[in-house]
Design a protein that fits this description.
Helix content is about 35%, strand content about 35%. The chain is of the alpha+beta class. The chain has 2 domains: about 130 residues, Translation Initiation Factor IF3 (2-Layer Sandwich); about 100 residues, Alpha-Beta Plaits, CATH 3.30.70.2970. The strands form 2 sheets. Strands 3-4-2-5 form a 4-stranded antiparallel β-sheet. Strands 1-7-6 form a 3-stranded antiparallel β-sheet. The longest helix is centred in the C-terminal third of the chain and has 27 residues.
């Protein structure tokens, strides 16, 4: 009888799941792959929308020379100027990190003979005051940075906000389970298991650059979304 009742609940939940998805913005679906009888497995999603407060930008210097030593020497001198400018702009040493250093030969049009060398170096800078991002970019470019990427916008309290998203995801899963259980004529019991599927994603974060010779590159922080996904197994009674 217990097995027959579990099968009956599964069949009803399948029907309820299909009906619940009709006309709904998001499909509510029981996971029929869960082997445990008398349970329901439901996915939940939690989202926190927030405004970024930290920007990370990468500044690079590309130089050329007739020899490898000449190209690298020029590059080191130019990158030192960029790093000094970033520090003068208020970037702490702990917020500066070298990303890569490279040295490559340059060939003639036929690709046969080496005609010189190109050296590259880049450093990332974390700006903890978004109001200063544009000025920092301008100062770095003025000091010799000829390759700029970013800024990548984020939050200092990202971990806390992700935990908030997790709580919302569990609540979302429970709400879906209650809808399915009510349609099937049963009740949602205790949580049997919770599996986290981390997914932190950034929503629209528009960044607009004006001409580099302008007073400062305008930065629009926009908003970002922190998303958490979980799958929760509930007992049924």
């Amino acid at each position: 009888m217990r097995t027959r009742r579990a099968l009956w609940i599964s069949a009803v939940l399948l029907g309820a799941s299909a009906l619940a998805g009709v006309g709904a913005p998001q499909l509510i679906r029981a996971d029929t792959t869960d082997p445990r009888p008398g349970t329901i497995s439901v996915g939940g999603t939690g989202t926190v929308t927030t405004e970024p407060d930290t920007a990370t930008t990468t500044f690079g210097v590309v130089t050329q020379g007739a020899t490898a030593k000449e190209a690298m020497s020029r590059n080191s001198q130019e990158m030192a100027k960029v790093i000094d400018a970033l520090k003068q702009a208020g970037i702490a040493s702990k917020d500066l990190q070298t990303q890569y250093v490279s040295l490559d030969p340059r060939y003639d049009n036929q690709g046969r003979e080496v005609v010189g060398y190109g050296a590259s170096n880049s450093v990332s800078a974390i700006v903890r005051d978004l109001a200063k991002v544009g000025d920092v970019i301008d100062l770095a470019v003025g000091a010799g940075a000829n390759n700029v990427s970013g800024p990548s916008l984020s939050r200092k309290d990202q971990s806390k906000l992700y935990n908030d998203a997790l709580e919302r995801a569990v609540a979302d899963a429970k709400a879906k389970a209650e809808v399915l259980a009510r349609a099937a004529g049963v009740s949602v019991g205790a949580v049997q298991s919770v599996v986290e599927s981390p997914q932190v994603s950034g929503g629209p974060m528009p960044v607009t650059f004006g001409a580099l010779e302008a007073r400062s590159a305008p930065i629009e922080p926009g908003t970002t979304q922190i998303v958490a996904n979980v799958r929760v197994v509930f007992a049924l009674s």
